[in-house]
Amino acid sequence: MRFTKGHGTANDFVLLPDPDASLALTDALVAAVCDRRRGVGGDGVLRVVPTALVPEVAAQAREAEWFMDYRNADGGAVEMCGNGVRVFARYLVAHGLASGDALAIATRDGVKHVRLNDDGTVTVDMGTPAFEGPAPEGATFVSMGNPHVVFFVPSVDAAPVATRGPDIEAATPGGTNVEYAAVSPRGLAMRVWERGVGETMSCGTGACAVAVAASLRGLSGRAVDVTVPGGLLGVEWRADDRVYLTGPAVLVADGTLSGAWLDANA
Amino acid sequence: MRFTKGHGTANDFVLLPDPDASLALTDALVAAVCDRRRGVGGDGVLRVVPTALVPEVAAQAREAEWFMDYRNADGGAVEMCGNGVRVFARYLVAHGLASGDALAIATRDGVKHVRLNDDGTVTVDMGTPAFEGPAPEGATFVSMGNPHVVFFVPSVDAAPVATRGPDIEAATPGGTNVEYAAVSPRGLAMRVWERGVGETMSCGTGACAVAVAASLRGLSGRAVDVTVPGGLLGVEWRADDRVYLTGPAVLVADGTLSGAWLDANA
């Protein structure tokens, strides 16, 4: 079984090509692949599969040839990931599965439009924000398809991400992502508590939510750089109300899983 | 640049073949390769290089064709690793660089003799223990080439590995590894604070030290299974005073580092 390892702002993925939709991707196999010591290691798996061969998304096949089948490290299906879709786009071009600098990629959250920039970054249309939802006092609610509550603080270094984050998630029906953000010399800085995961190095929808909330409060313009622990993202909230996320997409290595390892873990 | 990822009891390594000793293995490149999110990920790198081509160990070349050049994740050279040498042996045979079930491998701690067993485990002659060295009250000092202090406790679950380990290391001239061990239904169980690293999933010399100390105290026989957080090791302190460590050696995947990634990190 072939794989590619890649990351976007240190949010890392194992891409598994599945050109004929024949891969038996069990939860156990995903967990074994994502194990950082006993497997390849990653935050999740991105199965690369023709959209037309996957019933749940086949309706997107006219627009998008490839489906990003994203699984969390525990095997659970995930709708969309702003870091993952950049790495997925880079993979398609690097492996000759797509060409040009504008791609459409099928996801469980619908077709995503992606642009590969000359400087090596990738820009993703993340859709329009929405603002109706629960937030603790002092926080701003922003939905980017998934829910976020954003706190602005003097500095993210001392922000109570790991202490208040889980409490806020638990107290919110359906859970929520929690961001602590600050104005920084570069634009904005943020740390994130991801729903169901914990504190992470980067969250694409979280960066979008923070930039939108900052713009609404007059803390930034509608285009701003957002420093996350894993690197730098750019967010632009354009006049048509759509939010565009720009960031790195790095392919680290290509490889083949050992047959004996697969026999022991599949 | 080709690589193989492997592990022994969840102590994981990136093996880098270097058949003509031409690899410029800087500390920065080792750290980048070992980065679990931005690189391949591992506790360290094992460079696979002909012994005769490395001046510091060339004297071992008559006995051992291949030198295990072990670097910690920060790039620092390491003398020997009981988990790494098993994976190294498995790699040599899997890649056709050695054959048979008995191998000699050059290390900075001298030639190590290894046996590949029919059940897939690998046995390493870890040498003779020594007992002259500093230990806190209640602990047993055992040197397996490197220093260990072993505490026996009723249960390893509640052992103060992360709280007392660093204090004992700091209070010992030159530092020390610290093991907490208990008699278990399977034989012995242990947790380890590794000198310069912290609590880890497994330590081969630590398992040997624990088994020797337990045997001296009449808590086990001279052959005993030792459960570490990352899996199961077997230790046999034979009549000739040499200690043999047996455990799994798993090759997970073979791969090639991306040229662009290497350009950015080498």
Record the SSE blueprint.
Two copies of one chain form a homodimer.
Chain A: E1 2-8, E2 11-17, H1 27-34, E3 44-50, E4 66-72, E5 77-78, H2 82-94, E6 102-107, E7 110-116, E8 122-125, E9 140-143, E10 147-152, H3 161-171, E11 177-184, E12 187-194, E13 198-200, H4 204-216, E14 223-228, E15 231-237, E16 243-247, E17 250-257, H5 259-265
Parallel strand pairs in A: 2-3, 10-11, 12-14
Antiparallel strand pairs in A: 1-2, 1-17, 3-4, 4-5, 6-7, 7-8, 8-16, 9-10, 11-12, 12-13, 14-15, 15-16
Task: Please provide a brief summary of the model.
Chain A has 266 residues and is an alpha+beta fold. Helix content of chain A is 20%, strand content 38%.
Your description of this structure?
2 copies of one chain form a homodimer. With 266 residues, the first copy, chain A, is α+β, with helices and mostly antiparallel strands. Chain A has 2 domains: 2-124 and 249-265, Diaminopimelate Epimerase, Chain A, domain 1 (Roll), CATH 3.10.310.10; 140-241, Roll (Diaminopimelate Epimerase, Chain A, domain 1). Chain A is built from 5 helices and 17 strands. In chain A, strands 6, 7, 8, 9, 10, 11, 12, 13, 14, 15 and 16 form an 11-stranded mixed β-sheet that branches. A 6-stranded mixed β-sheet of chain A has the order 5-4-3-2-1-17, with helices on both faces. Chain A is globular, with a radius of gyration of 18 Å. The A-B interface holds A 3, 5, 7, 10-12, 36-41, 43, 201, 230, 250-258, 260-261, 264 and B 3, 5, 7, 10-12, 36-41, 43, 201, 230, 250-258, 260-261, 264.
